[in-house]
Specification:
The complex is a heterotrimer of chains A (316), B (298) and C (332). Chain A has 316 residues and is an all-alpha fold. Helices cover 79% and strands 0% of the residues of chain A. Chain A folds into 2 domains: 53 residues, no CATH class; 224 residues, MetI-like fold. Chain A has 12 helices and no strands.
């Protein structure tokens, strides 16, 4: 297993390199001079030039890239021009709300989608299946920010049940306080992803139910419910897991928009602000972190595969 | 005498090939029309396209006309769907906005289709190109679409043309990857080897033999790209970094709605409804296409 | 001693298709005694599996896509009159089934022991350690070595023959009165085939368990069965005790099947014998005797009217116009 992990990690490196290169190139093509932005409009051309050089912005771009990569490898993610905190702190403090949001969204999506997917598969072709499949279709067709607006309108404005914006960290307000503010955004994100998950669960289950071991289980006298929950679901879980892994990344990136609506101080909000402020190092660091999470997710799913399907041996 | 017979036989062979191709198309069309979902999807899109095209006819005043005395008016009173914060008629904004959003979606799909095909095909044919191109595509795909789009827009600046460009760059790798994997499996077939042995040039092999056979799954993928492009454009405009105001797009109408949702439900419900409807139509169409074409290629 | 375990009366099974209901099993009747091994033989598509899966009511009845007729009496209880829950109890406990392809019939993500214990969990009151012990005992019974270790292994870690034995172990776990074996040896090599057949014979003797053996291989029938039914297109065309069937095959189809067995003892023939034609689709069932289009002895009446099953000898029935009640075969 250890060898396998090392092999996978080493194949990540080219992808990460390319990605970091793409990001770096992009960011540095952004018109506008950070030095000027920092010093403000009053600054003279000389002052800008001095800061420019101090920040290393005079060097040719490939050299800047090399510097940056050099720093990354030694663990130094750079500094934010605007936020006077170590980069690690910045990222960590912003990741926490985003990760909380992601967690609750995935929970919602899972709780809603799995049972509905099972019911749809079991009743294939009948009324309940068409109904659930249509719901799923509408789910994947509605952008999460739209759903957020609608939910705010209904829950917060009309009925005043839930707060429409804001964030309360767990440390001060406890899990309940934190959750109350997370409910609407998490539901908005979760319900949209649930659409995809329902379809995936349904089709995966339907595929699996064609197999002989399902017929055998019936011949053994196993009840339909146990057949679906024990035999069918376990065998169908591989594709479902894969989709869930991809969903985590989708949720994190959709959070970009949702966080601005609900005013949650997460990574999404950080990126949008940083782009406006030309805070290069922050943007690069975040995109890198998200991409690493992405890749780690795939790795995690692969490892989970092994526990579910004994035929998969990763130690080649 | 024999020569005449031989050329007559050749002519009829061509005719047979044509008839067979027509037959294939008929079968696909039939299967497509039987798939209820696909047909409804197509109808929805058709409806949206029609009203978008007819926008100048329905609302000749255009989306910029200000009815200052009626700012943020609820539906009714000469404004079927109400007005926005500046007093512009919401129906007009939505009609023209749909037009722009659909234009963007269609352009992005077309560009992704063309360039994705080219990249995928050549990557599958030349090993060294494969390594470079696919690595770049992987690198781009590893970055979530919206983040990448935001970054591209920041580089290029806000304009409709740049939205199209950014989104194309985001989604070309998606199409390229499908094109490449399909092309690779076609290349496994021995007739490609046979063609090479006969001296056919790579260009000929790629475009006359591989490309037509991978069109179906690539087109299905492109229809999903269309849907994703509309979603992402809406998100970009919603954040304020997409189609620049005052040009209307479904996304930036919602951007303007952000601040007034407490007072003006119509600013959210109507544009939101149209957005969701167009994405729904595209998804249904994509599903239907996939089912219809899939059975054929088996 | 010779009590009747199973009695099938005029069983018919129809499936809903685009072209309406198609009858896959049409008026099949037979009975099975305790400790008897009954062979069911016929080409692919003749309805053997459908008949047996109907006996166990394995088809999805909730969708109204399958329609049954007739009666299935398991020791005087009509299985069609039972509710789904009651039928579930019967499956595995009173009647068990083993399938042709053991690799696909065993769930790949659960251990072999788990799958045996599943049976015990549903139908018995044993507690977990008792179930495990019983699972190990069953594996030993069917001839798996080191059962204590192998009980925790997964299906893909066994060879084809062993997987078949595991299926048999699962089927036996609750001591059913009847075991239905659907082509258990078709997917195995000849040597393994012999082992499995020996195992079935041994279990039949030891446990007095009735077996219905479905196969298209006449040589297996010859080795194992007491009685045989020959099926064609959803109907029984001949039934007899095994020696009688091989000594006096009467229906032209049966004769064809027997002649198809390559015989090493005799001189090598020029060509292997083949019954001409193929089994027609259920939607194109011929009028009159269903075998007539492929029969070398067919007469006009054969194409016009369907013959009934007639008894021509003790325990020997045939469905053919060419025989008369009580004897004489006009087909030679």
């Amino acid at each position: 297993m250890g060898k396998y992990l090392m092999k996978r990690c080493s194949s990540l490196i080219p992808v990460l390199l390319i990605m970091s290169f793409v990001v770096f190139m992009l960011i540095h093509l952004i018109p506008g001079d950070p030095a000027k932005v920092i010093l403000g409009d009053e600054a003279t051309a000389e002052e800008v030039a001095v800061l420019h050089q101090k920040m290393g912005l005079d060097d040719p771009i490939p050299l800047q890239y090399a510097h940056w990569m050099g720093r990354i490898i030694t663990g130094n993610l750079g500094e934010s021009i605007f936020i006077k905190q170590p980069m690690g702190e910045i990222i960590k403090s912003h990741m926490i709300p985003t990760l909380q949001l992601t967690f609750y969204s995935m929970l919602f999506a899972f709780i809603v989608a799995l049972p509905l997917g099972i019911i749809a598969a079991k009743n294939r072709g009948r009324g309940s299946d068409s109904f659930i499949s249509s719901l799923a279709m509408i789910g994947i067709s509605t952008p999460s920010f739209l759903l957020s607006l609608l939910m705010i309108m209904f829950f917060a404005v009309k009925t005043g049940l839930l707060p429409s914006a804001g964030y309360k960290p767990i440390a001060q307000f406890g899990i309940e306080g934190n959750f109350r503010y997370m409910v609407l955004p998490a539901m908005a994100l979760g319900l949209v992803e649930a659409g995809l998950l329902i379809r995936m669960t349904r089709s995966s289950l339907l595929d699996v139910m064609q197999n002989d071991y399902i017929k055998m289980a019936r011949a053994k006298g196993v009840s339909e419910l146990v057949i679906i929950i024990k035999h069918a679901l376990k065998n169908a879980s591989l594709p479902i897991l894969t989709v869930m892994g991809q969903t985590v990344i989708a949720v994190i990136s959709s959070a970009t928009v949702i966080e601005t609506i609900f005013n949650i101080p997460g990574v999404g909000q950080l990126i949008v602000n940083s782009v406006t402020r030309r805070d290069y190092d922050v943007i690069q660091a975040i995109v890198l972190v998200i991409a690493v999470i992405n890749v780690l997710m795939y790795l995690l799913v692969d490892i989970l595969y092994q526990f579910i399907d004994p035929r998969i041996k990763l130690n080649r | 005498m024999e020569f005449a017979q031989a050329s007559a036989k050749k002519a009829s062979l061509e005719e047979v090939k044509e008839a067979m191709k027509k037959d294939e198309r008929c079968i696909i069309l039939k299967r497509f029309s039987r798939n209820k979902l696909a047909v409804y999807g197509l109808m929805i899109l058709f409806f949206l396209a029609v009203i978008a095209i007819l926008a100048p006819v329905i609302k000749p005043a255009g989306p910029y006309f200000l009815d200052v005395s009626n700012r943020l008016a609820s539906p009714g009173n000469g404004h079927l769907l109400g007005t926005d914060t500046f007093g512009r008629d919401l129906l007009a904004r939505i009609l023209y906005g749909t037009r722009i959003s659909l234009e963007i979606g269609a352009s992005v799909s077309l560009l992704s289709l063309v360039f994705g095909l080219i990249i995928g095909l050549y990557a599958s044919y030349y090993k060294f190109l494969d390594q470079i191109l696919m690595r770049i595509c992987d690198g781009i795909s590893a970055i979530p679409a919206i983040l990448l789009a935001i970054a591209f827009m920041a580089v290029l600046g806000s304009s409709t043309k740049n939205v199209i460009l950014s989104l194309s760059m985001v989604y070309i790798p998606t199409v390229a990857r499908i094109a490449r994997s399909q092309a690779l499996s076609i290349m496994e077939l021995t007739y490609i080897e046979a063609m090479r042995a006969l001296g056919a040039s790579p260009t000929r092999i790629i475009w006359r033999h591989i490309a037509p056979n991978i069109l179906s799954p690539v087109i299905v993928q492109t229809s999903f790209v269309f849907a994703k492009a509309i979603i992402t454009e809406a998100a970009l405009s919603f954040l304020g970094v997409g189609v620049p105001v005052p040009t209307p797009s479904l996304g930036n109408i919602l951007y303007e709605a952000k601040t007034v949702i407490y007072k003006a439900w119509w600013m959210v419900v109507y544009p939101g409804g149209v957005t969701a409807l167009s994405i729904l139509g595209l998804n249904m169409l994509g599903d239907g296409l996939r089912d219809a074409l899939d059975q054929h290629s088996r | 001693m010779n009590k009747t375990i199973l009695e099938i009366k005029q069983l018919s099974t129809s499936f809903k298709t685009d072209r309406g209901f198609l009858k896959a099993v049409d008026g099949v009747s037979f009975s099975l005694q305790e400790g008897e091994i009954l062979g069911v033989v016929g080409e692919s598509g003749c309805g053997k599996s459908v008949t047996m899966q109907s006996v166990m009511r394995l088809y999805d009845e909730s969708r109204k896509s399958v329609d049954y007729g007739g009666e299935i009496l398991l020791e005087n209880t009509n299985l069609f009159s039972l509710t789904s829950e009651k039928m579930q109890e019967i499956r595995g406990r009173d009647i068990s089934m083993i399938f042709q392809d053991a690799l696909s019939a065993l769930d790949p993500v659960f251990t072999v022991g788990n799958q045996i214990e599943e049976m015990l969990k549903i139908h018995t009151d044993l507690n977990p350690p008792e179930r495990k012990a019983k699972a190990i005992e069953l594996l030993k019974l069917v001839g798996i070595n080191s059962p204590e270790k192998r009980v925790d292994q997964y299906p893909h870690e066994f060879s084809g023959g062993m997987r078949q034995r595991i299926m048999i172990a699962i089927a036996l776990s609750c001591h059913p009165k009847l075991l239905i074996a659907d082509e258990p040896t078709t997917a195995l090599d000849v040597t393994i085939q012999a082992q499995i057949i020996d195992l079935l014979l041994e279990l039949n003797k030891k446990l007095s368990m009735s077996i219905i053996l479905i196969t298209h291989d006449m040589s297996v029938i010859a080795q194992v069965c007491h009685r045989v039914i020959v099926m064609y297109l959803g109907q029984i065309v001949e039934e007899a005790e095994v020696c009688d069937l091989f000594d006096h095959p009467t229906h032209p189809y049966t004769k064809g099947l027997i002649r198809s067995i390559p015989n090493i003892a005799n001189e090598r023939p020029e060509e292997l014998f083949v019954i001409k034609g193929t089994v027609p689709l259920l939607s194109e069932v011929p009028q009159g005797c269903r075998f007539a289009p492929r029969c070398s002895y067919a007469k006009d009446i054969c194409f016009a009217t369907m013959p009934d099953l007639k008894q021509i000898d003790k325990a020997h029935n045939v469905r053919c116009w060419l025989v008369e009640e009580g004897g004489t075969d006009h087909a030679e």
